[in-house]
Amino acid sequence: MDSQTLQITEDEAALYDRQIRLWGLEAQQRMRNSSILISGIRGLSNEVCKNLVLAGVGSVTIIDHNIVTEEDLGAQFLITEQDLGKNRALASANGVRHLNPRVVVKTDTDDIREKAEEFFENYDLICLTDSDPDTMIHVDRICRKYNKKFYSACTYGFFGYIFSDLNHHDYIQEKKTVVPGKEEPEITRLKKNEEFVSLETALSKNDWDQISVKKLNKISRVLWSVLILWKFQQEEKRLPTANEIDMTRLKSLKDSLFTSNNINVSTVTDEFLRTFTLSITAELSPVCAILGGILAQDILNTLSQRELPINNFFLYDGIEGSGVIYQVEPGKKIP
């Protein structure tokens, strides 16, 4: 990029005036110069693309090798019936461009699992949606090798998760102090940094028994369900269904998870595990909007280096209407 490309124009400053007032010109500049890869084009990523493009990021590349099916028409707003049979990325691109013509929108119809490592060097941040755990671990390893920011996320009906691995992340923390006699508080900006672990490391946590039973049973049941689901996917190379064979296997994986970690968790009942399994292929627009909004805002925080992003799991339970953040890694006692 040349120096002119790197600078926000007067038109852009006017367009993003409210954002610049909120988080400053420097933060907007960082977003303006960012290049983002979003993999998997479904309801969740539609919401993420919308929010990132409207915020004025530099460029977004959407990659998906799948074609549009009738099931995609339910929670997605970037495609129509006329797109049936077309590649998802190509079909969605124009809808993304229309949201903000100033943002460069690119497409890729390849399978991300077949991409060479060098492909990921072109991006500042990679976000995988609706991906399997093996692919997430593989791409996260590459992101760490090239010092790229990594996110993964998915919705499962009423439920969903976000995972972030930002490696070593620097950010600015604002502290407001009320000063007697002044209408506006004084703002102090402190430089902070945070260390993240890879998804592979997070999943290797085996010291759950160091957490009290009371605290274990306060951990979102969605976290345990996601861990069980991922183990099934790694072993079977597919998503489970609610048939008796798969449910028996999921229950066995649940028992193995808890037994191997010498813990007793009562929140993940067989009934809930079945409810969760029945939901995994469903897309609900409200859940996509909620999780997509949270994910996009966290990505913007990361790009702008304002505020501490999610470290490292966010779990959403739409039935209970709750969303919680857990730092899952060996040696950490989840509060």
Automatic annotation (TrEMBL):
Protein origin, superkingdom: Eukaryota
Record-linked Pfam families: ThiF
Q: Which Gene3D superfamilies match?
A: NAD(P)-binding Rossmann-like Domain (3.40.50.720)
- Name one cellular component (GO) term: SUMO activating enzyme complex
Boundaries of each THIF-type NAD/FAD binding fold domain copy?
16-322
Cite a single GO BP annotation: protein sumoylation
Query: Entry's SUPFAM superfamilies?
Result: Activating enzymes of the ubiquitin-like proteins (SSF69572)
Subcellular location as annotated? Nucleus
The annotated pathway is:
Protein modification; protein sumoylation
Q: Does the keyword Phosphoprotein apply?
A: no
Q: What Gene Ontology molecular function terms does this protein carry?
A: SUMO activating enzyme activity
- Keywords in alphabetical order, please: Nucleus, Ubl conjugation pathway
Q: Which PANTHER family match?
A: SUMO-ACTIVATING ENZYME SUBUNIT 1, UBIQUITIN-ACTIVATING ENZYME E1
Which family does the entry's similarity section mention? Belongs to the ubiquitin-activating E1 family.
Q: What protein does this entry describe? A: Ubiquitin-like 1-activating enzyme E1A
